[in-house]
Amino acid sequence: MNTRNAPGALRELQSACPDVEISTEPAVLESHGLDWTRFRDPAPLAVAFPRKLEDVQALVRHACGAGLAIVPSGGRTGLSGGAVAAGGELVVSFDRMRQMLEFDPVDASIRVEAGMTTGAVQEFAAANDLYYPVSFASEGTSQIGGNIATNAGGIRVLRHGLTRERVTGLKVVTGTGAVLECNRGLIKNASGYDLRHLFIGSEGTLGLIVEATLRLERRPPPGKVMLLGLTGLDALMNVFSDLRRTVALSAFEFLTDKALAHVCAGHELSRPLETECPLYVVAEFDCPGDEAEEAALASFERGVERGWLADGIIAQSAAQNAELWRYREGISESITALRPYKNDLSVRISRVPEFLQRMDALVAEIASDYEVVWYGHIGDGNLHMNIIGPEGLGPDEFEARCHEISNRTYALTEEMGGSISAEHGLGLLKSPWLGRARSAAEIEAMRAIKRVFDPAGILNPGKLFPNDG
């Protein structure tokens, strides 16, 4: 791979793509050369802003012929370095491709350009008495193309699944500039390989997603949110199981006392409960009437009687629902200034308590001088581990220490049959450990697939495969 960062390369790019807006403004290079990770300095050649499919094709064709690496850029809210351009790459931003292209009320589906934000899709669905359930804290800025490229999850996977379940069609520009229309919005299609699923979760390494057809749902009944204070880790799965049997859960999120302290300080929130607890849960359930709320309260009372729960609160309005969700959704933003090293792990749901217990013991052994902030999605076994180093530690030393921690963390994750990346992708930070999640045969098969779609190896190098950048 020959990634060039020189005036000559820029002149060739501008000459080959005269209709595409291309910026070399320092502020733009910095803002579009990074995602939410802060372990690399941005150094792209330029940032291109295509407005239509043909612009994307022109950029890719030129890059393919010139040996110029491309980094696709959406909302840049990723947490694994998947959108980082630190080596003279061309950033292709979809900020100018945000159109709603088609709405089919019979199919309850929409076709959108890749740059449309998740929040805009949710708002459009709501305005048409429908529902787009993929939801997370960054939904106001994250883009649909990026959601699909990382198979984003969020807080409602328990009920509605990952982004993959929403996508019924894709239009993609491959690494040669060819256009693929995958599945065309069909519900049933058994005519050969479903290439759509190769691009979902591929982190921009196989092609650039330019359009997506998304399946919407009927609006769910009104929901209510509970914030519960647990007596300890042993109570977590008991509370989850009892609530799931009792009410129609759409979300079940946990956070530790450390996470609660950070979100309260970072967002100037008062503590939600009088009783201080080691673990908290934010749960949401369908509540079309009093019967559902009474059932949830009965589950809470059982939890108190059995020693699982120490305190709790249930929202009485939509505004209170939103207030309680802030204690969970505000965590990531509240610790961003501390430059945490983020791990996004998953195990089978039944193994979550054992995994957390073993991880706590491991961290106490190898990183007792570090703070570890846990939160995540219990309903799908996804745990977010945020490592915060001591004050005064330089970024290079901090990253090196975190890599040491990751070596041990991922070994334990592999031992327990889990994944080193549940919903954030691998990116620059995790690609060296791909072998902890995939066998050698699987990795070679994936490399072979990449050679088919990206023979020149220009698409987001180093973001999935180790030693590839």
From TrEMBL:
Spans through the membrane: none
Domain of life: Bacteria
Keyword Flavoprotein: yes
Matches recorded under Gene3D superfamilies: 3.30.465.10, 3.30.70.2190, 3.30.70.2740, Vanillyl-alcohol Oxidase, Chain A, domain 4
Every FAD-binding PCMH-type domain range: 40-219
InterPro entries from the UniProt entry: FAD-bd_oxidored_4_C, FAD-bd_PCMH, FAD-bd_PCMH-like_sf, FAD-bd_PCMH_sub2, FAD-linked_Oxase-like_C, FAD-oxidored/transferase_4, Oxid_FAD_bind_N, Vanillyl_alc_oxidase_C-sub2
Similarity comment: Belongs to the FAD-binding oxidoreductase/transferase type 4 family.
Protein name: FAD-binding oxidoreductase
